[in-house]
């Protein structure tokens, strides 16, 4: 098959696929080649796809049966073809893209990897495609919504296209709204107020999951978050959907706000969407700012992460080192308190040199508190100690 644009063959995971030759689309340094090419392909998302392979395999093993998979925004088909080739127990993969060239290339890549018999490719709007599958016996066990920008326009139809107990994977690359650079856009898209705090990437994950939980609740569907992460220029969340009004109510109960003091690092959570919010910091008397409503529940499940880790160790993934490090950190922080402190930000404020993270963690633990590192930031610490305690520990350490 020939394509009327420059292509090349690349290897990723266990597959070999034809993709647009990105060099041909960079005319000036500011050009973002994946979006300029006639079909979307982004080599830097390999880690995202590696983790998706692991999560889907863990999900399939937990279900203990054959699964159907859908990627409604597939681009060159690399992710979906990897699911068909690399994940055991996948019996059907549905790929879709609004661009005819993308659908054609995805179909070609399925053939190239010998999985054309289990991969079905469509070429229509993702919401139409998902809605055609939003009926009993047509729904999927796994839907991977991986757009360029926010996944919100596809959330409703993706939820409706999932079977009870199905896994939804979401990528959001619009970090400027989610991290509070464009707060109005965040409120408009995700229904929650962001904040430009040092832990804004965690807020981004919680805003994304909050939006998902509220959207699912409208259909009397609850969500259980199994894994989420923030890396490079995007956040990602994996949540299982459970049908039923009661479980949907439980999800809504996990919504709330995070109050933050920009003056003394104090932060606290407030459960419930309709709760009245404190305006004054109980620690220093300054004005409190609020992020939310957002998801205050768990953003990862230890057992699921450990299953993913086991899968990662049995494979030869391109991003293995980074993946194992991330999975270990996410597992370790899965049950730790909401939000984290950043030692560099504290030192900046107190005009102190930055001590080693490990020493700060040890001292906080010695003082009788829980303290763990976080995958969100290499200088971040999740702890149940108050901001004043963390500041005291840091000050004493460098004195
Ligand atoms: C970020 S790319 C997908 C990358 C792919 N998931 C991967 O892992 O390589 C987003 C894709 O969505 C497609 N797209 C954009 N709007 C769409 C819509 N309304 N319906 C279906 N596809 C759409 C674009 O053509 C593009 O190929
Ligand atoms: Zn304060």
Kindly describe this structure.
The protein is an alpha/beta fold and 399 residues long. Helix content is 39%, strand content 25%. It is built from 15 helices and 15 strands. The chain is globular and about 65 Å long. The protein starts with 6 loop residues before the first strand and ends with a helix. The site of zinc ion has 8 residues, from loops.
H/E topology pattern: EEHHEHEHEHEHEHHHEEHEEEHHEHHEEH
Rough outline: globular
Strand content: 15-25%
**Rg from C-alpha positions?**
22 Å
Give the distinct bound molecules: S-adenosylmethionine, zinc ion
- The residue fraction in helices comes out at 25-40%
- What's the tally of helices? 15
Rounded mean pLDDT score: 96
Largest sheet: 7 strands, mixed
Strand order of the largest sheet: 5-4-3-6-7-9-8
Structural class call reads alpha/beta
The counted number of beta strands is: 15
């Amino acid at each position: 098959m020939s394509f009327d644009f420059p292509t090349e063959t690349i290897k990723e995971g266990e597959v070999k696929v034809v993709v647009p030759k990105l060099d041909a689309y960079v005319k000036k340094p500011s050009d973002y080649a994946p979006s300029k090419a006639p079909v979307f392909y982004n080599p830097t998302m390999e880690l995202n796809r590696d983790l998706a392979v692991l999560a889907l395999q863990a999900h399939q093993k937990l279900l203990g049966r054959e699964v159907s998979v859908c990627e409604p925004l597939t681009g060159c088909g690399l992710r979906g073809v990897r699911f068909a080739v690399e994940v055991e127990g996948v019996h059907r993969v549905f790929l879709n893209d609004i661009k005819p060239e993308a659908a054609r290339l995805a179909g070609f890549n399925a053939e190239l990897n010998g999985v054309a018999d289990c991969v079905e490719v469509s070429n229509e709007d993702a919401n139409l495609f998902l809605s055609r599958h939003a009926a009993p016996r047509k729904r999927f066990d796994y839907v991977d919504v991986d757009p360029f920008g926010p996944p919100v326009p596809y959330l409703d139809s993706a939820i409706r296209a999932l079977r009870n107990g199905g896994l939804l994977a979401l990528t959001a690359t619009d970090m400027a709204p989610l991290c509070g650079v464009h707060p109005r856009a965040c409120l408009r898209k995700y229904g929650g107020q962001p904040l430009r705090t040092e832990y804004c990437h965690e807020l981004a994950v919680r805003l994304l999951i909050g939006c998902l939980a509220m959207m699912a609740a409208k259909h009397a569907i609850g969500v259980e978050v199994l894994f989420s992460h923030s890396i490079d220029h995007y956040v990602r969340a994996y949540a299982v959907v459970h049908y039923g009004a009661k479980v949907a109510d439980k999800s809504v109960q996990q919504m709330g706000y995070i109050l933050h003091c920009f003056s003394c690092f104090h932060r606290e959570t407030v459960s419930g969407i309709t709760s009245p919010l404190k305006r004054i910091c109980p620690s220093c008397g300054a004005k409190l700012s609020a992020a939310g409503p957002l998801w205050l529940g768990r953003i990862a499940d230890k057992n699921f992460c450990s299953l993913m880790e086991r899968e990662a160790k049995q494979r030869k993934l391109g991003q293995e080192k980074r993946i194992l490090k991330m999975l270990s950190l996410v597992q370790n922080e899965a049950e730790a308190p909401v939000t984290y402190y950043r030692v560099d930000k504290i030192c900046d404020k107190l005009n102190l040199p930055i001590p080693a993270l490990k020493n700060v963690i040890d001292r906080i633990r010695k003082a009788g508190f829980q303290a763990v590192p976080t995958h969100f930031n290499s200088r971040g610490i999740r702890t149940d100690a108050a901001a004043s305690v963390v500041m005291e520990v840091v000050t004493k350490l460098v004195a």
